[in-house]
From TrEMBL:
Top-level taxon: Bacteria
Signal peptide bounds: 1-24
Record-given protein name: Lipoprotein LppI
Keyword list, A-Z: Signal
């Protein structure tokens, strides 16, 4: 009986000392979203947090059933593997899977202009399930709230994870 008590005490002690699960860290090269100033995502023209950059990149945060991020427009620095014609965009690979990575694609006609609120370098929009920042040198970077998936858009090379 005494041995069982010691095993139970050891198990509880080990559980109490184990690190708690925490949000994953963004990958190397992803900007620190804490370095950007939050702006109110309330745009009277949209029911979802949305914005556009001076380079006409439009993004919607908390989009669709899985509340992911979708950006489209003048996306520069796309990987050469992104073929096709039409408006370039970045979105979840599988809209039905919350844990899907983001991918680049081209579809539909040319990009439409956006009337979403403008976001300038140094600013960010925070939604329920993601954050997007706009930085210098035409940088747009967005990440899910759990820091597991997101993307970086920039002329020097855009990438998604």
């Amino acid at each position: 009986m005494r041995g069982i008590r010691w095993i139970a005490v050891a198990a509880f002690s080990l559980a109490a000392c184990s690190p708690t699960s925490k949000t994953a860290q963004p990958p190397p090269g992803f900007p620190d979203v804490r370095d950007f100033t939050a702006v109110s995502p309330d745009d009277p023209k949209s029911t979802l947090p949305s914005f556009r950059t001076p380079q006409q990149i439009s993004c919607v945060v908390d989009f669709g059933d899985r509340s992911s991020i979708v950006c489209s427009g003048d996306l520069r620095g796309l990987p050469q593997s992104v073929g096709g014609t039409g408006c370039p965009s970045v979105r979840k690979a599988d809209a039905s899977a919350g844990d899907a990575p983001y991918v680049f694609e081209r579809s539909g006609p040319d990009c439409a202009s956006s009337r979403a609120m403008p976001l300038s370098a140094g600013q960010k929009v925070v939604g329920k399930n993601g954050t997007c920042v706009v930085g210098d040198d035409q940088l747009v970077a967005c990440i899910d709230a759990d820091n597991r998936h997101g993307f970086v858009l920039q002329p020097s090379g855009s990438w998604a994870f």
